[in-house]
């Protein structure tokens, strides 16, 4: 079985997803840790699965002992403080809380919203003001677009086209290939909406001249599409493309 990458292993180790792994131990190198544990089975485990492992009771017990003066109840025979059957997590245990928030928010489930996160935490742990902690964590997430409010302006949804015949609607977009042995760092993708027929055009840069030439070549081979659709990038909005669109047919943005 193929092992997960070292970067994934280190990330999982830090948030304490693996049962039987000492959270505080730094003795294993990244290579030794990869060789010892196969993490592929843990990469796509839902939070409500029996195979999923939250941060260990040992780490929670250690934090409870550090903050025993504010504990809401006495410890049980295992040295753990529970409130209504749930493990108590001190508000002062910032590192532990951060790990719990990361586990409930990120991962294969995507960037989950506030209600789902609060429910997952409250079902298992006794944490005061969970909603406040959760809201603060979500505000600081750089990838969540559904919690940014006015800081992120979503593009309005526009009308979509539905092709009913071949070569009725042509989609186009640039893909960046990155560094390579040659000079072509981009590829322009032309795709017919109905048949999914594609043409790929290698390009040194994402320019309107390349896009215009590609559309003309498409026109020579299979005819002129009635509608062109793009992501409205600058290379598709340039004067050259606008003149070509006016001369040919129409250019429709996705939004």
Automatic annotation (TrEMBL):
PROSITE patterns, alphabetized: INTEGRASE
Pfam families (alphabetical): rve (PF00665)
Ranges for domain Integrase catalytic: 155-255
Coiled coil region boundaries: none
GO molecular function: nucleic acid binding
GO aspect biological process, one term: DNA integration
Domain of life: Eukaryota
Cross-referenced PANTHER family: PROTEIN CBG26694, PROTEIN NYNRIN-LIKE
Name the UniProt record assigns to this protein: Unnamed protein product
Lineage: Eukaryota, Sar, Stramenopiles, Oomycota, Peronosporomycetes
């Amino acid at each position: 079985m193929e092992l997960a990458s070292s970067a994934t292993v280190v990330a999982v180790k830090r948030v304490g997803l693996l049962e039987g792994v000492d959270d505080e131990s730094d003795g294993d190198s990244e290579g030794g840790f990869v060789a010892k544990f196969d993490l592929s089975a843990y990469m796509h485990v839902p939070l409500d699965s029996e195979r999923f492992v939250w941060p260990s009771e040992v780490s929670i017990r250690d934090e409870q002992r550090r903050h025993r003066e504010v504990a809401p109840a006495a410890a049980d025979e295992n040295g753990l403080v529970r409130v209504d059957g749930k493990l108590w997590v001190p508000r002062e245990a910032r590192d532990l809380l951060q790990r719990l928030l990361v586990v409930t928010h990120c991962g294969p489930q995507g960037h989950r919203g506030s209600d789902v996160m609060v429910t997952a935490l409250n079902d298992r742990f006794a944490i005061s003001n969970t909603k406040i902690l959760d809201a603060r964590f979500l505000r600081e997430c750089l990838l969540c677009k559904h919690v940014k409010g006015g800081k992120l302006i979503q593009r309005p949804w526009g009308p979509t086209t539905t092709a009913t015949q071949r070569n009725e609607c042509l989609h186009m977009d640039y893909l960046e290939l990155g560094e390579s042995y040659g000079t072509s760092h981009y590829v322009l993708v032309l795709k017919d909406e109905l048949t999914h027929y594609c043409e790929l055009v290698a390009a040194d840069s994402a320019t309107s001249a390349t896009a215009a030439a590609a559309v003309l070549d498409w026109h020579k081979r299979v005819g002129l599409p009635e509608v062109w659709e793009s992501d409205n990038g600058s290379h598709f909005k340039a004067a050259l493309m606008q003149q070509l669109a006016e001369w040919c047919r129409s250019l429709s943005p996705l939004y």
